[in-house]
Amino acid sequence: MPSFDIVSKTEFADVDNALQSIKKEIETRYDFKGAKCSVERKDAVLTVLADDDLKLKQMHELLQGHLARRKIEPGVLDYGDVQKAAGQSVRQVVTLKNGIDKELAKTIVKGVKDSKLKVQISIQGEELRVVGKNRDDLQTAIAHVKSMKIEQPLQYVNFRD
């Protein structure tokens, strides 16, 4: 029986490349001259340091723009609360979503089952397996999941006929 997997994966090598290009742009941009702004990654957590809230917003734009150039959607970023650091400077923790959490998985499963499609969907760790009798049912399931307007970017991989 044909099947495919629904996953949500982030390539950390592409994230590192985007962070390197952000660092270069911060060094060359005039509005960042003399500013102590940076973005650092440790595992799936980014720490954004900026001089003030305005610079933090500019750092967000840089981050989203450079990630988009590397084909990483902005929906993968989960922004934490803005924390005050020394003086006027601010710090923000941004988590990179990797994998489908249980709540989102349950939402997708419920949406597919409520649509009365002729497919079976099951949760397997941080991914979902969709099985159907023919290819058309699977394509309809993909179209339905895409129409659900889920913020987190999803990939449809491992198609087997």
What key attributes describe this structure?
161 residues, 8 strands, four-stranded antiparallel beta sheet, elongated, Alpha-Beta Plaits, alpha+beta, 30% strand
Which helices and strands occur, and which strands form pairs?
Layout: E1 3-7, H1 12-28, E2 38-42, E3 45-50, H2 53-69, E4 77-84, E5 90-96, H3 102-114, E6 119-124, E7 127-132, H4 135-147, E8 155-160
Antiparallel strand pairs: 1-7, 1-8, 2-3, 3-5, 4-5, 6-7
| Helix count, DSSP H or I runs of 4 or more residues | 4
The structure class reads: alpha+beta
**What letter string, H or E per element, gives the SSE order?**
EHEEHEEHEEHE
Number of strands: 8
Stretches where pLDDT is under 50 for at least 5 consecutive residues are: none
Q: Mean pLDDT, nearest integer?
A: 89
Q: What coarse outline follows from CA principal-axis ratios? A: elongated
Give the C-level CATH assignment of the largest domain: Alpha Beta
Proportion of beta-strand residues: 25-35%
Rg of Cα set: 20 Å
The description of the largest β-sheet is: 4 strands, antiparallel
Described by its quaternary structure, the protein is single chain
Helix content: 25-40%
Whole-number total of structural domains: 2
Can you characterise this structure?
By secondary structure, this protein is an alpha+beta fold. The chain folds into two domains: 3-8 and 99-160, Alpha-Beta Plaits, CATH 3.30.70.860; 12-96, Alpha-Beta Plaits. 37% of the residues lie in helices and 30% in strands. It contains four helices and eight strands; from the N terminus they run E-H-E-E-H-E-E-H-E-E-H-E. The protein has helices at residues 12-28, 53-69, 102-114, 135-147; strands at 3-7, 38-42, 45-50, 77-84, 90-96, 119-124, 127-132, 155-160. The chain has a four-stranded antiparallel β-sheet with strand order 6-7-1-8, with helices on one face. Strands 2-3-5-4 form a four-stranded antiparallel β-sheet. A hairpin with a 5-residue loop joins strand 4 (77-84) and strand 5 (90-96). The longest helix is centred in the first third of the chain and has 17 residues, at 12-28. The protein is elongated, with a radius of gyration of 20 Å. It starts with a strand and ends with a strand. The mean pLDDT is 89.
